[in-house]
Structures are given as C-alpha cells and as structure tokens.
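Format notes (please read before filing issues)

Several people have asked whether sequences and structure tokens are stored in separate files. They are not. Every record keeps both together, in the order shown below: the sequence lines, then the token lines. Line labels are part of the format and must not be stripped during preprocessing.
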Amino acid sequence: RVIAQASQIHPSATSRGSALADSGVMAALRALGRYNRSYSLAVHGYRPVSLSLTRCFAALAQPATSSDNIAPTVKQLINGVFKDSSTDEWIDVTNPANQEVVSRVPQTTEAEFEAAVAAARSAYPAWRSTPVSQRQRVMLKLQHLIRENMDALAANVTLEQGKTLADGKGDVFRGLEVVEYSCNIAPDLMGDFVENVATGMDTYSIRQPLGVVAGICPFNFPAMVPLWMWPVAVTAGNTFVLKPSEQDPGCAVLLAELAQQAGLPDGVLNIVHGKAATVNRILDHPHIKAVAFVGSNGAGKHVLQRGTANGKRIQANMGAKNHAVIMPDAHREAAVNALAGAAFGAAGQRCMAVSAAVFVGGIDPWRNALVAKAKGLKVNAGHEAGADVGPLISPEAKKRVEDLIQSAVDEGAELVLDGRGVEVPGYQGGNFVGPTIIAGVKPHMQCYLQEIFGPVLVCLEVDDLDGALSIVNSNEHGNGTAIFTRSGPAARKYQNEVDVGMVGINVPIPVPLPFFSFTGWRGSFGGDLHMYGKAGVTFFTQPKTVTTNWKLTDEDVGSRASGLDGVGSGR
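Then the structure lines:
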C-alpha cells in the first residue's frame, strides 16, 4: 500500500528513478505515517537516483511488533557483499515519532565479525598500494552520489532518528563536507625532507596507513559521524570496519552502497552491527590498529581504557555541556535566535548543542524574548511540514530528560517554560519533549551537571565576564562554547581564557569545517588526535623516517661520512 500511495503522490518514486522534490518527499513520508509498514518508504516507495535499497535490507521471517507488519532486517557488509546475519539476536529499530518498528538490526556473530576483519585485512595490501589520486577519485564520485541522493538519505535519517527533514539534510551535508575534504587529502599526507643531514646523506619522512581501523558511531548523527570517520581513513590508505548505532543503522548502510557505486573496492569498507558485544570485539581484536568513537561519557571511557590497554590508537569524542555567554551588549534578536536554534534544534540531541546559557548581568532583559521564541517552535514528527523540534530517540531518553527537568524544580530552580507533556496530534506514542527553559540554575544542580541531551536550556546568571569564565572553565567538559557580544576586547578575552576546544564568537555552534578538525578538550575528548582534517589524517597514519646514503663511485663505498670517524671505533 505504501508503494502504491507513493506512486500516486509522485510517479517518479517508482518509475523514472529520479530524486524527488521536497514536496514529493514530504508527501511520501506522510503516506508512510498513515500506512506505516515502516521501512517500505526507504526501501521501495522513495526511489532515489542511485541506491538499490533492497540490496541493503531483507525481509524478516517473523513479524515485528505489529501483527501485520513484517519489518525488514538490516544487512551487514562483508567483503563487498550485503549479507543477512545468521544471528538469533535482533534489535528493533523504531520510528521515534510513533514507536513502530522500522527494521531489525542483527547482533553480528563472532564468526561474521571475524569475516569482516579478514576481508579488511585481505583488501589492505592492494588498497594501500593504490595511488592516492585514484583513492581521491573514488571520494569525488562518492560526493556526487551523496548529493544526488541527499533527499533519500535525509528521509532515512528522519525515519529512524526522528530529526526534522531539514536537520536530516544538515546531518548528511556536514558528513558530505568531510567527503569533499577527502577528495584533496594528498597535501595532508605529505612528509618532510632535509637534504645533506651529513655528507651525501638525506633524511625524509613519509606518512603510511595503519592497516585495518574501525569506527563506533552514536545515534544522533547517523550520516555525519560515519562520514567523519571512514572517508578520511580509507582515502589515507586504510581499510575499515564500521559499527553504526544499533538505533538507526540504515543511513550508514545506504552510504556504503553509494561508496561501492563510487568504485570503493570490496573489503575496503565493511559494516557490522550490534551493541556492547560488537564494541568489545572491535576493541579486543589484534588486527584492528585504531578506533574512532563518538558517544556518551560512559561508553567513551570504556572505549578509551579497553582500547588503549590493547595497544590501539583511540580518538573518543564524548559528552559535553556547551555554554553560551550572553553579554549585555549582545544583539538582542540575533542572540535569542541563536540560543533557540542551538538549544532546541535537533531536539537538543547533539554534542555541540548549547545546553547552558550564562547571562552576564542577569536574564531579565532576555527572558520574554527567549520564551516567545521557544514557544513559537513547532513540535511535530520530523517529516511533517513546519516541524521545528522532532522526537527524542527513545522512550528511555524522554524519561531521562523529563526526570532531569523535575530535578531542577526539586532543587529550587525556576521552570520558566515546561516542555513536558506536549501533545502531538496523530503521534501520541512519540518521544516528544517541547522546548524547556530553566532559570535560577546553580552549578551544583543535576540539570547543570548532567548532559541532558534534550531540548532544555538551563540559564545561569553572573555579574561579569570573569564570572562567566569561572563557570565555563570549572565544568568538566570542554567541547564547544560561544560568546555573544559587540565588544572586540570582551570576545578576545573570552577566546583566549576559556578552557574549551571550539569557540564561537556570535556563532552558536562552532563546529569547524573539515579542513580544520573537531577539537573538543578535557572531559569531552579522550585520546590525543582529533577527528577529520589534518589531525584526522595524522590519526589514521603513522610516520616513517628514511635516511639515505647513495655513493657516487666505487671508491666512495669504503669511505666514512664526515663527522662519523669515531662511530663504531670504540673511541
């Protein structure tokens, strides 16, 4: 029924094979909401330019939660083949807007995991010997295919993760930027050369890939974070084993199919699925040399400790509590708009969300405008027209957010705007929490100490910029921060003295473009080499230093280099 409905809405969905306009996407997703046999839209009803989505998913023999709904299973990618798992352990992937089962993802078995690593090992010698210009051309083709299939990928993100279609496109686009960076990775692979370190001797360094590397991804950016990892790694000459989040794995699998179409050889990129068992296999496997991770504090600390204990390189982007400092001279409308977007966009489920606002001189001049802006945001299923704030990823996430809101009330904070209990017609089972503003927050309160990961803005007040710096620098996290001001000296003081790795000046979410790197500090990061950009290339490669001594004539063979007369003589 979904296929037929999508065909009526937009004939090209099942015939011409061309990408749909936004209106077609919206209509097809609305059809999915009405007739939701969940994954049918992404697999059949919405036919994008290049994806053969049935390669990535297969029918499940047993019914899903709904008695008449058979959810497809997500396949693994091993040695260039999308394969069904033989596991007897399946994890439901649900639509956060209505709890219907979208698909089922396997807990990859030990044998399947070993096969994925073996495929990566087998592909490595030929791939590392492939000229870098040829590896870059694969990325050039991939970025073109991602652009062609942007709407299909964003629709999948919305279906599985819940964010609005606009945010879904942003998710894909920020990952695409890293693919574009990888198209010109060669300059960051360059080494150094010093001529005549001794008479007739030169020394130079080169960067070589590590071998088999891996990535472990979170639920909140199912397109962007995988694309932060494997494009840089494979273009640098490595082969890769990827574990997407078990809560929304579909987009990572679809991107892998596009990579195949772009010419990525079999075995260079492999995908396994699951929860802690798969994570631990990655961390323990002796042939995996490095692991990139994005996720929560607890999981990140586990990855860092277990991975480094097994001799692996680790880069772990973890939790955050990102502060925005609002100076009295800040532009009123611009600052309010920025705060609302950074705090409530993507339902607050991003590691660079502004979850704490520090008002220098007090919140009162800003209160009414901020509340009015937050109340004007529309809470709805991500595919619905005009939606500003979608659902949280799971009922458990919703409960945690609501519990932290209540803890603020219990500890004496002022609940200025309460987003609990929001009703979304037609989506009564959705994981919705509306924009929430809490004032009078003190640094000892749980709503401040915890990363809420929901559409909640906690507001603190200080007398001056030094007080704001004290609060920000006392927090255990150091991911991102922003200051809103028209004062150059204040901005410069803040950027110089704040102990945070990414700083925005009148920019609420200062995520660097890929020719820089994502540089969280302190409790927000574990490891010593950051993701993407030059630091990412350095993480996925290792230096080799070569010293040469070419003799010009046979007579030179027995001569010693100047300055080395005493070496080896016992003197």
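For reference, the curators noted about this record: Residues 1-48, 59-68 have pLDDT under 50 and may be disordered. The first strand starts at residue 57 and ends at 59.
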